[in-house]
Amino acid sequence: MENSTIEYQELDRLTGKLPESFVKSVVAFANTDGGKLYLGVRDDGSVAGVEDPDAVMVQVCNVMHDSIAPDIMPYVSVQPLEQDGRQVVLVTVSVGSERPYYLTKAGLKPQGVYVRRGSACMPVDEHGIRQLIMKSAGLTYEGSISLEQELTFTTLNAVLSSQGLSFGSEQQKILKLRDEQGRYRNLALLLSEQCRHTIKAAYYQGADKDFCLDRHEFSGSLLTQLKEVYAYLNILNRTSSSIVGLERREVRDYPEEVLREALLNCIVHRDYQYSGSTIINVYEDRMEFISLGGLVEDWTVQDLAMGVSQSRNPRLAALFYRLKLAEGYGTGIAKILKNYPQAAPQSIFEVTAHVFKVMLPNRNAQARIGQLAGTSKTAENLSYRTQPDQTLPQRAAEDDRQPYPTVATAREYLTGRGHITRLELQEALKIGKTKAFTLLRALCAEGALRQEGAGKLTQYRVLRRQG
Fold this sequence. Notes:
Elements: E1 6-9, H1 21-31, E2 35-39, H2 53-67, E3 68-69, E4 76-83, E5 86-93, E6 102-103, E7 114-117, E8 120-123, H3 126-136, H4 154-162, H5 169-174, H6 186-191, E9 199-205, E10 211-218, H7 222-236, E11 239-244, E12 247-252, H8 256-269, E13 278-282, E14 286-292, H9 301-305, H10 314-322, H11 331-339, H12 345-348, E15 349-351, E16 355-361, H13 365-372, E17 384-386, H14 388-399, H15 407-413, E18 419-420, H16 422-429, H17 433-445, E19 449-452, E20 459-462
């Protein structure tokens, strides 16, 4: 039976020539895991045979020499065999060391490069071709030399210093940020303030994208993005309470450790060869984390569910582990599934060739839907009450312990004003986007402001005289 490493082909009955698919199969085997191609055998495995095995072997060698580049001959053996009393020709292809191999007439393009997927030969897109080139050279994105060499590491230096670690030239080599010649690798670029990759987060009303309440783009070092995005999501992670007997129980929309692991997965395991942003969408009933780059080749969601992992960026993962920001490989997926025991892995993780999406259900969504419908009891006979008015000011008050402007400072700034925007508050108080958003949400929660508009048109109306 045909599979990823075995294929059967018949010669043309009238001319005795090889089928057009022959060179594609050889290229696909050489670019993937190697394989065996039996000439003179039908698709169902029955033997048709070849009349002149020597002539067929000469034809095979000539076609491969003329139709495939780079030279694949050192990785191919051709020999005659006898099966069921008939002669066949066996072409054994090993994995080539100069991948990608391609059809000479098509060139190094998607229509010329093939890999093996099951029993099929599939064309490879431009991204896949780049990956084959890097694998052949023993390179990864994070290990390649950065085109940008003027890098700064304010955030990384601060994190290392907080853990008693130095950030000298030798330490940078140990962390794989520089090569032996002192040049910065792309790993260093990702951790520098000059990092070109961003995370875009949007907060929507309802369960679709019809009305956007807020939108942010986070940039800078991946360490900065991790901190700021988590703070942003933590603000949106509301708390609902239920009264069971004499006890009051509080449940956040999303377990904090799940948010952390989903965010870390986006940052540590995405494919940075793509220039697009990581996307986080927050709806009333779910939160979605969408990162570029599917699973490492030939891996499945079932493999992840079993607690194993293969990192696309092992040096970045190792550095996050060293900085105590991430645990061992495979633990993050296991934590997510543990917190949603009733959900099948396929409902949490969605994978395509180029995208990995994590979808986290909002644990309080059904209770809130019941409230809106005038229902005071949930399916578990619990009455829920959302607490945005308490949660946001409380978190903002906790933020006030930080050495920068407080809610009181922001409230004072509103004196005599009719409207304000996030950017105006940010510039006036010399604070970042996340802090400004935190203050504005807290002021909305206490009734001092009302949000109007969405996206870039968002502004906040002052509801009462300040001072």
